[in-house]
Design goal:
This protein is mainly α. The chain is built from 2 helices and no strands.
Length: 63
């Protein structure tokens, strides 16, 4: 149970970090004059990212 809770916490932290990064990118693009409406952003899902899987398995490439 502890392992599942820990993996859930890590998964949520990664999703939160990705959300902050997307917000920063969108803000930057809007400041550069790009038109990005909120309706379009509402269709973006963070779950398909290949390094975050709902079952708690993570694949992080070494750089």
């Amino acid at each position: 149970m502890n392992k599942a809770s820990s993996l859930s916490l890590v998964s949520n932290a990664i999703l939160y970090w990705n959300t902050l990064k997307i917000e920063k990118i969108v803000t930057s693009l809007r400041q550069q004059g790009e038109e990005i409406d909120d309706e379009t952003l509402s269709h973006i899902s963070l779950l398909p990212y290949k390094h975050v899987l709902p079952n708690g398995t993570y694949f992080i490439d070494d750089l």
